[in-house]
# Entry
Amino acid sequence: MSNQLIFTVTSAGRQALASNPIALSYVAIGTGNNAITGYESALQYEVGRADIISGGVEPISEVLRFSAVFDTSGSQAIYELGLFTSTGVLFALARNRDQPAFNNNVHANVYGSFGVSLAGLTVSRISIDSDDARSQPLSIMESHLANSTSHPRYLDKPRFNHLLSTVIPIGYLYHSHSTSNPKPLFDELLGKPTSWQRLTGRIIVGTDDNDAYVDSPSIDLGQRGNTVTANQQRPDVYPLQATHIWERLT
# Structure
């Protein structure tokens, strides 16, 4: 997990911007944690650099947003980040004193997105010199996350509710070895009140189009307590097992 970083535009960065338009090109990371004076021209202890892969200035808020990917070969606690122009001027510096901004891990790239307030500066003179080749994956990811239906093949809440109402419609039969009314269970599952009635003294047999005795639903197949009639007039070879059955009413 990363900690908040607050960038300070350096004196050198302000002077460079006052003289000419500038292009911000790369980010450096380091392990130094001295207090920022605003007159720095380099990081205290630089340990790596990364090209900016995407970024731009928000004209209304005057905030510079940029992203970079840091390739690491060792484990380090990173306390400072510096934003540099294409000519090597340290434009802005962020540094945490007490806690690292983030930790580099061996053989694991770190993706970072940052913001720098440019209030009071001529933002129209600032541009981003980004690495287009490396920005493509991040741009795809950012576009993906910004899409309200970024996972169209996944089951969102409306589609999930539709699935539940299809799988558990009115008339659904719930079999259980418990005599407890399943209302609380299905109220929670469906997110709305339901009602159930217990069916007693009934056996459920699947219909069979090729068997005239069971080719339609709701046919009475046997007579309770009258095995002679059942044996002589209706089949009695259907496998039966007693269980508790609840029917959904609403």
